């Protein structure tokens, strides 16, 4: 029996290695072709065009639907210099970093690379992988623990995509109370990211906030998150959209509270991702820290992702953000037993519930 177990482990290691080589070769080939042809991933190209305008031709920059400038100026000033001066290297890191982070979180298990939001993000050259460290901190935080000051710097990265970082900001902002050092680092990090943006354009924050309502209306019309449940989305007034999202959030909260009791950070993250009208498919990459240590949960996410890809190819409609989160919410509500454990900290105690 011992020999059979050893042979079984060896067989799984070899299978994992073969799958790893096959899956990693796909983004490597994608990046190699881009470097050879000079063509870049679609969303990456749009974002870096806007970043170059903001930093090097600011009068030509504007927050408009035409330029698709959705991000706060802190985002553009952070990345315009490396894009302009070390672009090929910057592009390689940008595109392959999510693959490396996924493998690190999954401890080298190749199957994690089939997570559908990862493929969507690499294909478009998107950036939500930068928010994974924030959600990892939120998952691994234990109530009452000493918080190193530099955790505040990690939270400051949320200034690049505040609509994604919002649940982590709320969660850790409350649970860090009484420890001033991480709060100070958080504030100083936010200031450091914001200063270049304000120096180049002091009015950017007002312009961005005014433009966000238009941009969010466009995103909601596309049907991200729970909005995809509405059959006729285009033309809906934004108050109706947000009211629907609020209703969905309340219903999901009631379901999880009934089935799970006190909600954990994973529950709040699922609720936020499912109910938000501005959540894109690739934004679900922030779920990886919650999935990699839970086999059943990961299996549900992978199967739902495959179904979402199949649905997209068959109908031309992208509903990954709602299909994956809905499947995980059902799985969460179905099981009332085992407490959560982080895939990065299996030996630690289960996270304390929210009171």
Biggest sheet descriptor: none
User: What would the average pLDDT be, to the nearest integer?
Assistant: 86
Structural class, from secondary structure content? Answer: mainly alpha
> What is the gyration radius calculated from CA atoms?
21 Å
Terminal Cα separation, in Å? 48 Å
Shape: globular
Order of helices and strands: HHHHHHHHHHHHHHH
Task: Report low-confidence residues grouped into runs of 5 or more.
Answer: 340-355
Strand content: under 5%
How many helices in DSSP terms?
15
Please report the total strand number as a whole number: 0
Q: What percent of the residues sit in helical stretches (DSSP H or I)?
A: 55-70%
How is this structure best described in words?
The chain has 355 residues and is mainly α. Helices cover 66% and strands 0% of the residues. It contains 15 helices and no strands. The chain has helices spanning 2-37, 42-56, 73-85, 87-105, 116-124, 132-140, 151-156, 162-175, 180-200, 204-222, 238-260, 265-275, 288-291, 295-315, 320-334. Helix 3 (73-85) crosses helix 9 and helix 11 runs antiparallel to helix 12. The chain is globular and about 60 Å long. It starts with a helix and ends in a 21-residue tail after the last helix.
Which characteristics define this entry?
disordered C terminus; 15 helices; single chain; 355 residues; mainly alpha
């Amino acid at each position: 029996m011992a020999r059979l177990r050893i042979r079984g482990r060896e067989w799984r290691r070899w299978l994992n290695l073969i799958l790893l080589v096959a899956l990693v070769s796909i983004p490597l080939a994608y990046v190699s072709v881009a470097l050879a042809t000079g063509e870049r991933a679609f969303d990456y190209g749009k974002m870096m065009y806007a970043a170059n305008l903001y930093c090097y031709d600011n009068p030509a920059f504007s927050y408009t639907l035409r330029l698709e400038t959705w991000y706060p100026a802190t985002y553009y000033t952070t990345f315009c210099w490396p894009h302009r001066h070390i672009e090929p290297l910057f592009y390689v890191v940008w595109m392959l970093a999510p693959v490396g982070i996924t493998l690190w979180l999954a401890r080298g298990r190749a199957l994690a690379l089939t997570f559908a939001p990862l493929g969507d993000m690499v294909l478009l050259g998107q950036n939500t992988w930068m928010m994974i460290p924030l959600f990892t901190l939120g998952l691994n935080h234990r109530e009452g623990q000493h918080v190193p000051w530099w955790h505040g710097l990690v939270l400051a990265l949320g200034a690049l995509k505040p609509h994604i970082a919002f649940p982590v900001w709320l969660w850790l902002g409350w649970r860090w109370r009484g420890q001033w050092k991480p709060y100070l680092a958080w504030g100083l990090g936010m200031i450091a990211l914001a200063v270049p943006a304000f120096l180049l354009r002091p009015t950017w924050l007002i312009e961005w906030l005014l433009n966000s309502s238009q941009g969010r209306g466009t995103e909601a019309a596309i049907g991200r998150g729970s909005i995809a449940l509405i059959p006729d989305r285009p033309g809906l007034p934004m108050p109706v959209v947000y009211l629907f999202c609020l209703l969905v959030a309340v219903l999901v909260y009631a379901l999880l509270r009934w089935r799970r009791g006190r909600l954990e950070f994973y529950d709040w993250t699922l609720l936020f991702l499912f109910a938000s009208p501005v959540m894109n498919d690739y934004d679900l990459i922030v779920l990886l820290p919650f999935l990699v240590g839970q086999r059943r949960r990961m299996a549900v996410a992978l199967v739902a992702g495959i179904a979402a890809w199949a649905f997209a190819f068959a109908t031309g409609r992208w509903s990954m953000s709602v299909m994956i989160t809905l499947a995980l919410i059902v799985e969460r509500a179905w099981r009332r037993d085992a407490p959560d454990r982080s895939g990065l900290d299996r030996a630690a105690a289960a996270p304390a519930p929210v009171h």
